[in-house]
Amino acid sequence: MSDPQTLLRSRAWVDVDLGALRRNLRRVLNAAGPGAAVVPMIKADAYGLGAAAVVRACRAELSRDELWGFGVAAVAEGEALRAMGWPGPVTVFAVAPPGEYARAAAADLTLALSDPEAVRGWAAAALASGRRLRFQTEVDTGMGRAGFPWERAAEWGPVVAEAAGDLIAWVGCFTHFHSADELDLAPTDAQWERFRAAVAALPPAEAGGPAGPVHAANSAAALRRGGYGAGLVRPGIFLYGGAAGPGAAPEPVASVRARLALVREVPAGTTVGYGATYTSAGAERWGTLSVGYGDGVPRRLGPLGGCVLVRGRRVPILGRISMDAMVVDLTGVPDARPGDVATLVGRDGGEEIALDEVAARCGTISYEILTGLGPRLPRVHTDGAGERAGA
Ligand SMILES: *Cc1c(COP(=O)(O)O)cnc(C)c1O
């Protein structure tokens, strides 16, 4: 019988180490201080690594008190989480389109709201659905993309409480930091002070104000300032193996791999790729990898000096990356064979190409590399030393 995991690893794929993810999760929680809880952010299919498996890993790792709920960005992601059987809080942190309120209500999602009109619309959805729905308010302290203005909380607080009435429950209030991963934490401290001032100006819970947690921290703020002591943190990237600020690095979680499809000896003067931008100087040994920008490998990685690992050695990418294939120079790896596994991101033997290294080389961030990995790459999840997840 052919092993399904072998089939998944036939062309190109992403290995996802859920054991490492769980250890990263534990580190964030520990950094947030005793009694803290987390809302793992699993938007964009858990940053491209597979939300269903990540949800299972979080539920396996955390106690009920430690796992406050999950965070998503789209109503459809919340519906998917319900389909996976998660019964607890699901908060849609991005602004939900009013046209999706009925669906959000049916899935019992919690919406993050940013203006009184949205509060009224969500209350109307509660009335129509016959359920008491939940919402949080976002406070804009400098991110500028959503949220009630921090400096006018005394104005909008009572308006929100009034519009919510008994129809929808105000279960939390949060802000989002724009620079928590930068060396200087002064801008983040200033955002936190704005947020505290706003929260202090809101009506108390007895008068219809927020009755749940007040929270702010992404991965970087959870790790560096203990989530500002808020007791609830919202980590994303660190769980998935991306650095969050200048502190200690996470354990790598995602490895991008591809098979060597062809290995050939080429004479001097052989060209490679669109535009024939590279020509062999002498006799060289080239390997074709069955992966390309159609899988989410950034096309600019080639000209920017990108490498891959083959048999534990770094080899350069030659010429332009195609949609479905790319060529590497195996001259320095004479033992490389078709079928060998090449590593574009991750470890092989004693060598590593870190996710953040690839991102930096491409002039972007780890988030964009991970969420850009395409659906053509199977996500192969393992939990622990070679043990298969979900088996
Ligand atoms: C994505 C997101 C986070 C997580 O941020 P990371 O930098 O990935 O830790 C936290 N809060 C909100 C509102 C988000 O949208």
Structural write-up:
This protein is of the alpha/beta class and 391 residues long. The protein has two domains: 18-240, Alpha-Beta Barrel (TIM Barrel), CATH 3.20.20; 254-353, Lyase, Ornithine Decarboxylase, Chain A, domain 1. The protein has twelve helices and 20 strands. The protein has helices at 4-8, 18-31, 43-47, 51-61, 75-83, 101-106, 116-129, 153-164, 186-200, 219-224, 355-361, 366-372, and strands at 12-17, 37-38, 70-72, 90-92, 110-113, 133-140, 148-149, 168-174, 214-215, 232-233, 254-266, 271-272, 278-279, 284-289, 307-310, 313-318, 326-329, 341-348, 351-353, 379-382. The strands form four sheets. Strands 3, 4, 5, 6, 7, 8 and 9 form a seven-stranded parallel beta sheet that branches. Strands 11-14-17-16-15-18 form a six-stranded antiparallel β-barrel. The structure holds pyridoxal-5'-phosphate. Pyridoxal-5'-phosphate (PLP) binds next to loops.
Quick recap:
By secondary structure, the protein is of the alpha/beta class. The protein folds into 2 domains: 223 residues, Alpha-Beta Barrel (TIM Barrel), CATH 3.20.20.10; 100 residues, Lyase, Ornithine Decarboxylase, Chain A, domain 1, CATH 2.40.37. The chain is built from 12 helices and 20 strands.
List the helices and strands and how they pair.
Layout: H1 4-8, E1 12-17, H2 18-31, E2 37-38, H3 43-47, H4 51-61, E3 70-72, H5 75-83, E4 90-92, H6 101-106, E5 110-113, H7 116-129, E6 133-140, E7 148-149, H8 153-164, E8 168-174, H9 186-200, E9 214-215, H10 219-224, E10 232-233, E11 254-266, E12 271-272, E13 278-279, E14 284-289, E15 307-310, E16 313-318, E17 326-329, E18 341-348, E19 351-353, H11 355-361, H12 366-372, E20 379-382
Helix pairs in contact: 2-4, 7-8, 11-12
The chain binds pyridoxal-5'-phosphate.
